[in-house]
Design goal:
By secondary structure, the chain is of the alpha+beta class. The chain has helices spanning 30-40, 85-98, 128-133, 155-162, 179-193, 197-206, 256-259, 265-276, 283-289, 361-370, and strands spanning 4-7, 46-53, 56-63, 79-80, 117-118, 121-122, 232-237, 240-245, 262-263, 293-294, 302-304, 309-312, 318-326, 330-336, 342-347, 349-353. Strands 3-2-15-14-13-12-11-10 form an eight-stranded antiparallel beta sheet, with helices on both faces. Strands 1-8-7-16 form a four-stranded mixed beta sheet, with no helix packed on it. The radius of gyration is 20 Å and the shape is globular.
Length: 375
């Protein structure tokens, strides 16, 4: 582990960062602040919520963004969004379906001949839908991919190495969350568009939405643009914890279209709201994204569609988005509703050892969304 630092962090008073003239005061959200504080007590050195509706947004903070200099996490702080990348990847695939270049229920073998084959795999029996839905049977195991001389990874090589692990179940018979599915989806994007998957995401989503603080990294590029959120890996016992900074520790080409991207809470709610508002895919494709299956081993109020999670809200209705964790020490989630409410959550730490009972991310997001009026 990199440099260790032992630190005890107290909650930081809730603050507001207005993003519109009608932004709601954070003082109106004491219930969510309490849930956030409880979450942060079993998460990283700090945690933050950026939430609101079409009229404006509000921000809550707990703990600190940096173990060396106490400061609140900002809604414009850039961090690794990890598996929230999957929704971007899925949107591009479904745009290709909208354009008639891919069929959702066609076998992956049609587009990537010989890639998902052998060792128990039959690409003629695994559909594009099953890849995006995590019902393909491909396990969440990376294997031992060969790195390039510069330490980066080729996407096709990472997929090859992963598929040396046999299938976990026959296609369509069960569900297991697997990063490898979305690496295969990245290869599909590259095959159909003729460009690197990151370039396709940039051209089709990031630039059209004006997400200036969102980026898909090039090989070997581990930087985050200031202001950024440091990430930490560590252990917590009661109020005491030991953290090692891990912000730049991972080679991101290993995670690629499954988890390599960087963004901010503000940019992520813009993306998820644009998706919910039908600005990125057709109504038919959005409906397909939202056809969910049970997430085995996850909370009962969640379901998985096509690169999209459903969160059933305690106040009624549903929110749509994704969660993400990466060994850079970043853990996050962003969800939006059809009536214009949004919530993004981030913490700057992942625990090797922590409390058995803890407040979950979904509880914070639910509180923020239910505590925001429709506007």
């Amino acid at each position: 582990m990199p440099r260790l630092a032992a630190v005890v962090v107290a909650a930081v008073v809730a603050m507001t960062t207005a993003v519109s003239a009608q932004a709601q005061p954070a003082s109106d959200h004491a219930d969510t602040q309490a849930v956030l504080d409880s979450y942060q007590a079993s998460a990283g050195p700090g945690a933050a919520v950026h939430a609101g509706n079409r009229a404006g947004s509000w921000d809550l903070h707990s703990g600190t963004a940096d173990t060396k200099v106490k400061r609140a996490i900002g809604s414009d702080d850039q961090f690794r969004i990890a598996s929230q990348t999957k929704t971007f990847t899925s949107v591009v695939v479904l745009q290709l379906v909208d354009e008639g270049k891919v069929e959702l229920d066609a076998p992956i073998e049609r587009y990537l001949p010989g890639v998902v084959t052998g060792n128990g795999y039959d690409g003629t029996k695994i559909s594009v839908r099953q890849i995006l839905q995590h019902t393909s049977g491909i396990p969440d195991k990376f294997g031992a991919p060969r790195a390039n001389p510069d330490g980066t990874y080729n996407l096709r090589e990472v997929v090859r190495a992963a598929l040396t692990n046999p299938p976990q179940f026959p296609p369509g018979t069960s569900w297991v969350y697997s990063n490898i599915n979305f690496l295969v989806a990245g290869l599909l994007i590259e095959q159909i568009t003729g460009m690197p998957a990151g370039d396709a995401i940039d051209a089709r989503i990031i630039k059209p939405l004006g997400l200036t603080r969102t980026a898909y990294p090039r090989g070997g590029d581990r930087k985050l643009d200031a202001p950024y959120l440091p990430g930490y890996m560590g252990a917590r016992v009661g109020p005491f914890f030991i953290w090692g900074e891990a912000t730049f520790a991972e080679e991101l080409t290993l995670y690629a279209t499954a988890g390599a991207m960087a963004s901010t809470e503000e940019n992520l709610v813009t993306f998820e709201q644009a998706l919910a508002d039908g600005k990125l895919v057709s109504p038919a494709m959005l409906a397909q994204m939202r056809k969910t299956v049970p997430m085995i081993g996850w909370p009962a109020n969640m379901g998985y569609g096509l690169g999209l999670m459903r969160l059933d809200l305690s106040c009624g209705g549903q929110a749509w988005g994704h969660l993400g964790d990466l060994k850079t020490g970043h853990s996050s989630g962003t969800f939006a509703t059809d009536d214009g409410r949004h919530a993004a959550l981030v913490t700057n730490g992942l625990l090797y050892v922590g409390p058995a009972k803890k407040t979950e991310r979904a509880e914070v997001l639910n509180s923020a969304l239910c505590g925001t009026p429709v506007g």
